[in-house]
Design a protein that fits this description.
The complex is a heterodimer of chains A (about 325) and B (about 375). With about 325 residues, chain A is of the alpha/beta class. Chain A contains 12 helices and 14 strands. Chain B is an alpha/beta fold. Chain B has a 6-stranded parallel beta sheet, with helices on both faces. The model of chain B has no long low-confidence stretch (mean pLDDT about 95).
């Protein structure tokens, strides 16, 4: 079993599904001979042909729009949006069509579509390349929103997303693409969607996060452990629909919760999770829920981006605040 | 300096506004067995159209978009399609939809505020009405790609209006289909009006058909009120598409004789005298005169057809008005293949607070 990084795990999952199901097609900009700007599709066009690994013209609206037509007519398209900030031209098709084709036709037509896009900052990328659009997408009824945080979960969740009969937004944290390697078996075993993954058990507080922020969140848990504080860490993984029961169950044991996300704070998914805790878990809370998030500012260019991204220090400080509250 | 590209746009018309042949006709245009069903479909469309407006005016239907004056386009194109092709309509294409087998009561359910209206009993692969302008061009291009990839002799056909041809989705879908050599037919029903904005303010191009040229697609303009012309170019375009050829764009020039929708009052922005003038070019009279000239039609048949269409529409209206209301749970049932656990509580809440008589009245919940 090989040790691979997250972007290689994406490649492995795509190759597995292309080989398994001839209805699977990939489309996007520069995904063919070039293998994708992040190399997620390296070698796939050579192996599966230009008919199934399609270099499209440069137009994101039509990448998603045509993928909807393909999906409705029996293909299993996996569309790549090259950079997160280029997703926005396709929002009309995602909200008005992909998310509601099944509902609009009472199940007659469906849209088994995956849209992959890198997301998040921290790699000194140019403007418009470091977006965190998950809350906007999660607000749309009919869309699933998934974000992996490790090579193994990227592989297993992407398999699940491609096999799912409905549209899935698969947001790949750019900063995680090559952050670490992990053994991943190409066994075709999908991981479940719609559930959180508890990455480490703990008794004193619950840290909830997703995507690249789990790197800092886990480091914060390590730092807290050196002080004898036991933090449970939850990877939300599927952001919509949200697996609130797993978070509630954890907080029922720990009594404290810190939610960490890179996206801007206002109306971010941290607010949704905090509201869920207020509605259904208030009496198990020993301290107010804390959020550590990106600021409500424009994502800065590279020289300031590390000041925007939640740091280990900010997470530890928020954790301390919950511990000092009672 | 040298010229590196030239283009020309042909205009196709076989019958003049009085239904007189302007020259040699294609074979089908002399064959009543092919023409009469198309005339009947146009007549049924117009009968349905008038009834739908009447239903809306009496509070029994929601907002409705009339196809008055544009019947030849939908019927002429859809009659050239095969069952296995797929239609990607705008919201003004019930002429095409009726030919495709969409039932009048289904269309009424849709306009009456019920998603079940888009669960067509026939035409199972056809897309539902597309309200966001021009987006269906991309969907149709993708469908055409799927047909081509699987080696199927099927075509995707999409309809949009003159206003839709200003959208980026139109250009992008057109361009993708061209690059892919996908079996796609794009029909621009140029009815001269995008709600209140006239064709002259919509685009500076001499024709809308020439927008195809920039994408490397064949573009042709037809008299959209001449059923023979529309059907002829659609047959040619679809034969080419099924044979693995390039996409085609047809600009069908017509005139929107009615308001944009029942929510619109076109007298606010256009001269009724001009509309009155346009009635002399409308498509039913033209085809009827041609059929009379062929000896295939007369007052008796016309009267019988009128009666038959009225009865057909009345029966459909009755079926529509007698449709059981949608269930409260239906909001949740088709959101995903399986209702996610996170939504179960919301569904239960909706059920708990549902009125005893759920689903409102046909045409909207008037309380």
């Amino acid at each position: 079993m090989a040790e691979i990084n997250l972007v290689e795990a994406v490649n492995l999952a795509l190759a597995h599904e292309l080989a398994r199901d001839e209805a699977v097609v990939l489309l996007g900009e520069d995904i063919g001979a070039n293998g994708g700007v992040f190399r997620a599709t390296v070698g796939l066009q050579q192996r599966f042909g230009a008919g199934r690994v399609v270099d499209t013209p440069l137009a994101e609206t039509a990448i998603v729009g045509t993928a909807i037509g393909m999906a409705a007519m029996g293909l299993r398209p996996v569309a790549e949006i090259q950079f997160s900030g280029f997703l926005y031209p396709a929002i009309d098709h995602l909200i008005n069509h992909a998310a509601r084709l099944r509902n609009r036709t009472r199940g007659r037509l469906t849209c088994p579509l995956v849209v992959r896009t890198p997301c998040g900052g921290g790699i000194h990328a140019p403007e418009h390349h470091s977006e965190s659009p998950e809350a906007m997408l999660a607000h749309t009824p009919g869309l699933r929103v998934v974000m992996p945080s490790s090579p193994a979960r990227a592989y297993g969740l992407l398999l699940a997303a491609i096999r799912d009969p409905d549209p899935v937004m698969f947001l790949e944290p750019t900063r995680m693409y090559r952050l670490f390697r992990q053994e991943v078996a190409d066994d075709g075993e999908a991981l479940p969607l719609d559930v959180c993954f508890t990455l480490r058990g703990g008794t004193d507080l619950t840290l909830v996060s997703w995507g690249a922020m789990l790197h800092e969140t886990q480091a914060a848990a390590d730092a807290l452990a050196t002080e004898g504080i036991s933090a449970e860490v939850i990877d939300v993984a599927t952001l919509k629909p949200l697996d609130l029961p797993t978070i509630l169950e954890s907080v029922a044991r720990t009594g404290r919760c810190v939610i960490v996300h890179e996206a801007a704070r206002t109306a971010g998914l941290g607010a949704e999770i905090a509201a869920g805790l207020a509605e259904e878990g208030l009496y198990s809370l020993l301290a107010p829920v804390q959020r550590v998030t990106g600021y409500d500012t424009v994502m800065p260019l590279s020289r300031l981006e590390t000041q925007y991204l939640p740091s280990v220090e900010r997470i530890v400080a928020a954790a301390r605040k919950t511990l000092e509250a009672s | 300096m040298s010229t590196v590209a030239r283009f020309q746009i042909d205009h196709v018309r076989f019958l003049d506004p009085q239904g007189e042949a302007l020259g040699p006709l294609p074979d089908f245009a002399r064959d009543p067995a092919q023409l009469v069903p198309m005339y009947r479909a146009m007549y049924l469309t117009r009968t349905f159209d008038a009834k739908a407006i009447a239903l809306q005016r009496t509070g029994k239907l929601g907002t409705f978009a009339s196809a008055l004056g544009q019947e030849a386009i939908g019927v002429g194109v859809a009659s050239a399609m095969r069952a296995e092709d797929a239609l990607f309509p705008s919201y003004r294409e019930h002429a095409a939809q009726l030919v495709r087998g969409v039932r009048i009561e289904e269309s009424l359910r849709y306009w009456g505020g019920d998603e079940r209206g888009s669960d067509f009993a026939q035409a199972r692969h056809d897309f539902p009405n597309c309200v966001p302008i021009g987006t269906q061009v991309c969907h149709a291009a993708g469908a055409a790609y799927a047909f081509k990839l699987r080696g199927e002799a099927r075509a995707a056909v999409c309809f949009l209006g003159d206003g839709g041809s200003s959208k980026g989705d139109f250009y992008e879908g057109l361009n993708f289909a061209a690059v892919w050599k996908a079996p796609l037919l794009i029909v621009v029903s140029n009815n001269q009006w995008a709600i209140s904005v006239p064709r002259s303010a919509q685009s500076a191009t001499a024709t809308l058909a020439q927008k195809a040229i920039a994408a490397g697609v064949d573009g042709v303009q037809v008299d959209g009120n001449d059923l023979v012309a529309v059907h002829h170019v659609a047959r040619e375009a679809l034969a080419k598409a099924r044979a693995g050829g390039r996409p085609t764009l047809i600009e069908a020039v017509t005139y929107r004789l009615g308001d944009h929708t029942t929510a619109d009052d076109a007298s606010r922005y256009r001269d009724p005298a001009v509309v009155q003038e346009q009635w002399s070019f409308e498509p039913l009279t033209r085809l009827r005169n041609h059929l009379v000239g062929l000896g295939a039609w007369g007052p008796d048949k016309e009267e019988a057809l009128a009666r038959e269409c009225t009865e057909t529409v009345s029966a459909a209206v009755e079926a529509y008005l007698n449709t059981p209301p949608p269930t409260t749970a239906a909001m949740f049932e088709h959101l995903f293949a399986t209702l996610p656990a996170a939504l179960v509580a919301q569904r239960d809440e909706a059920l708990r607070f549902a009125p005893r008589k759920a689903g409102g009245q046909p045409g909207g919940d008037h309380g």
